Amino acid sequence: MPVRSEHSDDVVELVLDWPQKLNALDLEALLELDAALERAEGARALVLRGEGRAFCAGRDVSEVDPATDDPRGYLDTFTALLHRLAEFPAPTFAAATGACLGVGLGILIATDVVYVADTARIGSPFAALGAALDSGAHALFVERLGTHRALDLIYTGELMSGAEAVASGLFSRVVPADEVVGFTREKAAAVAAGPTAAFVAEKRLIARVRDERIGLWQSMADETDAQVALSATADYAEGFAAFRQKRRPRFAGR
Predict the structure, then answer these.
(1) In this predicted model, what pLDDT tens digit does every residue of 97-120 receive, in sequence order?
(2) In-domain check, residue 252
(3) Which molecular-function annotation in GO is an example for this chain (predicted)?
(4) pTM for this prediction
(5) Exposure b/e, 157-187, CB count within 10 A at least 16 = b
(6) First and final CA of the chain: distance in angstroms?
């Protein structure tokens, strides 16, 4: 099975488990990952990682025949999966190791927080296939790197190291390769003990700024609406009670 699910308290960890193929994903694996994401809903944090040397080397093209291939069907399925991941009702984290290419890069783009191994490899290998970069990477590269650097990566097929990707603003933090999975689990576990409803509200606020390019005043109005809604939650009451009583809050995630 190319996708494995593990549970620890309020955290679900989804593992891409096809290391002999660098966790490359065929259509069946995409559907399996989508189903695993749906089953994981209810967790207070989600971790994604790859087994072995890579996070995900992209689409499994080892048996693709260009004469009969339907790239639209595969990519439409993948886009639906990314929507499910981006809208997951809890904070999501990824530990990016080794190759993070094609659909593997797309999974990282749709994840809330990405911790990158210093040895990770990120970029666009599509020139060697005569294909176009996909999975949302054009938007990411242009937004974070600018058009010149984006086209440089696309044309040359050169890959960025994890350290370079983080320094360029693509992802959250760079971590030594032998520590990144443990580091990601530690951060996810800490966040899973936090005010989940507030985190989900803030995820939506940030997505609206990113996707709809709303400005300062609309964002402030949205923040007010979110705060009013959160004021009716148990975690909001607990947070204020803990502050008054000078103790650590005990959030229930609701």
Answers:
(1) 999 999 999 999 999 999 999 999
(2) no
(3) isomerase activity
(4) 0.95
(5) eebbbbebbbeeebbbebbebeebbebbbeb
(6) 34
